[in-house]
């Protein structure tokens, strides 16, 4: 990039210089060539890519060395001041062809001052899972961080929650920012008001310029409102896509509303509000149906972190924008994934209540239903010959059918894509991931992984949902 990386303006207070681990091997397992081109980094050979994204030499005109970011956060409702980038760092900041600022952040790149007792490494399986999740969410039009690179590093790792020793990797994630809600919490708890002001100004200038006011209190209120809207839109998309994040801690929310830091995520097989992704979430705190409420709770912690600079009542008012942003996003994305036009919010939400209520009561396969009825009336014949056709013969489906048949198809020419000629959609259920990983773990067979990526690309091209701007109007 030609301009100085903006994070350097505040790095002295919010990060620590670190170096990458020295890995014995560097085997490229995934490179996101499409996004590499978007940020001007697509010209590397495979050998150069492997070296760059395992050794992390400073990019010309960029950060002089990696920076491990400092933050705190609530983890399952309990405040933890001992967090920070324990196995990753900010490697570089680059400009995209869209003019946006993007971070290249790592995971599995070695120990930092915030590693505590951890080894700073990433399992190859964890990297494979994040490649798949981020690629799938992007294909479904959900705002998400992008998996930029995955390099296998040749170490044998010991882990408590999977067979060990297991293979290691280092990955690079592309996001608009790696600044988290937990970043704000840290400086508030430490009582560093001057640093909180610096952080607010930095985030507003680089990511939310519409929130800028001469008065700092008004700036904070406007920033809380902007972040509330972004988070509301993101979680609305999650709910329409049947995505369960699994670990909605405050350090896993960034300031631009991108799906971030994938752990034990799942995609729903069937609609189930009580579905839990993380085996260690014994209370179901982050279950599927509770995600909207948890998103608001996270935003309340963000408002609390801004409270030294703004009136708490005004911050509370700002968060009221979350509910409408969530509702509109949930409505918009539901109909976008069904390939039909939206109407008025007051009419659409009750109809979606009927649709999702049937999904829950019937146990119909989530992604198959969206696939079968993509385009509404334009897919009536497709739905009749679907593997799930018996669900559509149920008496309780009649009102759902009426809703779908009354909708105007959006860009029905998309149904001419080869993707819609198949009988089943591309899905990313838990058993599928486990099966393709087993082939990698047992035989170093990457064919199923590559085939899944190919299917996901076909899905992306068929849906044509590159982001909120592509919602039907």
Sum this structure up briefly:
This protein is of the alpha+beta class. The protein contains 16 helices and twelve strands.
State the separation between the terminal residues, measured CA to CA: 36 Å
Q: Structural class, please?
A: alpha+beta
Q: Helical element count?
A: 16
Count all strands and give the number.
12
Overall helicity? 40-55%
Overall pLDDT metric: 95
**Overall 3D form:** globular
H-E string: HEEHHEEEEEEHEEHHHEEHHHHHHHHH
Strand content: 5-15%
How does this model look, in words?
This protein is of the alpha+beta class and 473 residues long. Helices cover 42% and strands 12% of the residues. It has 16 helices and 12 strands. It has helices at residues 11-14, 33-38, 46-55, 124-139, 181-189, 193-207, 216-241, 291-306, 312-319, 321-338, 345-362, 366-372, 380-384, 398-405, 430-443, 447-463; strands spanning 15-17, 27-31, 67-69, 73-75, 78-80, 90-95, 101-107, 122-123, 146-157, 166-175, 243-244, 266-267. Strands 2, 6, 7, 8, 9 and 10 form a 6-stranded antiparallel β-sheet that branches. The protein has a two-stranded antiparallel ribbon with strand order 1-3. A two-stranded antiparallel sheet has the order 4-5. A hairpin with a 2-residue loop joins strand 4 (73-75) and strand 5. Helix 4 packs parallel to helix 16 and helix 7 runs parallel beside helix 10. The longest helix is centred in the middle third of the chain and has 26 residues, at 216-241. The radius of gyration is 22 Å and the shape is globular. Mean pLDDT is 95; it is low at 467-473.
């Amino acid at each position: 990039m030609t301009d100085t990386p903006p994070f350097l303006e505040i790095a002295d207070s919010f990060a620590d210089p670190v170096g990458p681990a020295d890995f014995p091997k560097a085997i490229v397992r995934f490179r996101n060539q499409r996004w590499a081109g978007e940020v001007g980094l697509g010209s590397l050979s495979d050998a150069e890519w492997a070296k760059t994204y395992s050794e992390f030499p400073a990019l010309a005109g960029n950060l002089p060395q990696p920076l491990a970011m400092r933050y705190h956060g609530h983890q399952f409702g309990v405040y933890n001041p001992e967090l920070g980038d324990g196995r990753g760092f900010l490697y570089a900041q680059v400009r995209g062809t869209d003019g946006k600022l993007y971070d290249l952040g790592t995971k599995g790149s070695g120990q930092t001052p915030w590693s505590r007792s951890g080894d700073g490494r990433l399992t190859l399986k964890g990297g494979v899972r994040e490649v798949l999740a981020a690629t799938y969410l992007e294909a479904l039009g959900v705002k998400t961080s992008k998996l930029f690179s995955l390099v296998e590093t040749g170490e044998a790792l010991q882990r408590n929650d999977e067979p060990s020793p297991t293979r290691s990797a280092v990955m690079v994630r592309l996001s608009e920012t790696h600044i988290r809600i937990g970043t704000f919490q840290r400086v508030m708890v430490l009582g560093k008001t001057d640093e909180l002001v610096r952080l607010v100004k930095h985030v507003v200038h680089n990511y939310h310029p519409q929130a800028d006011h001469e008065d700092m209190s008004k700036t904070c209120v406007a920033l809380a409102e902007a972040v509330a809207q972004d988070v509301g839109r993101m979680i609305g998309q999650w709910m329409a896509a049947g995505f369960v994040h699994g670990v909605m801690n405050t350090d896993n929310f960034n300031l631009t509303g991108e799906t971030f830091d994938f752990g034990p995520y799942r995609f729903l097989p069937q609609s189930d509000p009580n579905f839990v992704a993380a085996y260690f979430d014994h209370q179901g705190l982050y279950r599927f149906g509770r995600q909207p409420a948890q998103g608001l709770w996270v935003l309340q912690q963000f408002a609390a972190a801004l409270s030294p600079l703004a009136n708490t009542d005004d911050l509370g008012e700002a968060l009221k924008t979350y509910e409408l942003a969530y509702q509109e996003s949930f409505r918009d994305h539901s109909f976008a994934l069904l390939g039909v036009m939206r109407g008025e919010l007051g009419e659409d939400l009750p109809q979606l209540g009927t649709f999702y209520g049937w999904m829950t009561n019937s146990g119909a396969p989530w992604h198959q239903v969206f696939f079968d009825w993509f385009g509404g009336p334009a897919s009536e014949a497709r739905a009749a010959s679907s593997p799930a056709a018996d669900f559509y013969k149920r008496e309780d489906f009649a009102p759902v059918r009426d809703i779908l048949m009354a909708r105007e198809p959006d860009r029905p020419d998309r149904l001419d894509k080869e993707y819609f000629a198949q009988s089943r959609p591309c899905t990313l259920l838990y058993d599928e991931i486990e099966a393709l990983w087993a082939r990698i773990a047992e035989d170093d067979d990457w064919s199923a992984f590559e085939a899944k990526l190919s299917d996901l690309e076909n899905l992306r091209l068929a849906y044509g949902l590159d982001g909120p701007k592509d919602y039907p109007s």
